[in-house]
Specification:
Distance between the termini: 29 Å
Order of helices and strands: HHEEHEEEHEHHHHEHEE
Radius of gyration: 18 Å
Structural class: alpha+beta
Strand order of the largest sheet: 4-5-3-8-9
Length: 271
């Protein structure tokens, strides 16, 4: 299965379409993910295969409206990164920290819908017991491990509230913001910026060759629109770039800072 097919199938899945919540004034719904899927199919959001990313990882580039991916993208990260894309498409000013809040919560809702064991009494209880200490350690030390646990744990607790039909408290959302702000991957990037299309919805933005070279990237062109009743296989037509694309980037973080990976290293174990 191609990367594009995997992404489209995930965005159109029953679980993804059940996602619906509002946090920090940002409303996330299944319909927003359908719009991202259609935009990927049209090529307005471009898909780039990056050899600089580990297998299974993804990153959304808001400057040039593209998603970078290596082989076998994780469904959880598809939800996370496409939440960033959805927020970008909304075309409104948004705090980076709140962009991350919605992406983490959407990711955890999807995980819980996919695996009901993450909603078990034992799993939910363990997260509720362990997360406050992780948040405290994250604030005190700024170390990666407690901050990852704090971010995943608070996102999981908020997701559980939403799935249970309750409204998360402002204090819970603030705790997630605190974990993100103290996380070493995010601490230098949390300034306000305006999310918008650079050249208008429905039109792709040219990705500079230097950007592709830096991430060892090749554009994955969507297939031509198939006749009615038929769909061409997604993900065909990979455009190779110059030999410079085979060189490693001088500093990949300049192009994909860790905050764009949207990783929750301990997410598979959380409730």
């Amino acid at each position: 299965m191609s990367e594009l097919t995997t992404i489209l199938d995930t965005l159109r899945s029953r679980e993804c379409q059940q996602i619906r919540f509002t946090l920090a004034g940002i409303t996330i719904t299944g319909g927003g993910y359908l719009r991202v899927a259609r935009t990927l199919e049209r090529g307005s959001i471009q898909l780039v295969r990056s050899l600089s990313l580990p297998a299974g990882k993804m990153a959304y580039n808001w400057r040039y409206n593209f998603i970078a991916v290596n082989r076998d993208p994780s469904e959880n990260l598809i939800i996370h990164e496409c939440t960033h894309a959805r927020n970008d498409m909304a075309g409104r000013a948004i705090q980076v920290v709140d962009d991350e809040v919605t992406a983490y919560v959407a990711q955890l809702i999807y995980m819980k819908l996919k695996d009901p064991r993450l909603r078990s009494f034992a799993a939910v209880g363990a997260i509720a017991r362990n997360t406050p200490l992780a948040v405290s350690q994250c604030v005190a030390t700024g170390a990666r491990q407690p901050c990852e646990m704090a971010t995943a744990g608070m996102a999981s607790m908020i997701a559980e509230e939403i799935l249970s039909g309750r409204v998360p408290t402002d204090a819970m959302v603030d705790q997630l913001r605190t974990a993100i702000r103290n996380h070493p991957d995010y601490s230098g990037l949390l300034q306000q910026r305006r999310f918008r299309w650079h050249v208008g919805v429905g039109r792709r933005r040219m990705i500079p060759q230097s950007e592709l070279d830096a991430i060892r990237g090749t554009v994955i062109h969507p297939p031509p629109v198939a006749p009615a009743g038929r769909r061409a296989e997604a993900g065909q037509g990979i455009l190779p770039h110059t030999a410079a694309a085979l060189r490693g980037p001088t500093d990949a973080s300049d192009h994909f800072p860790p905050t764009r990976f949207g990783l929750i290293p301990h997410a598979e174990a959380v409730g």
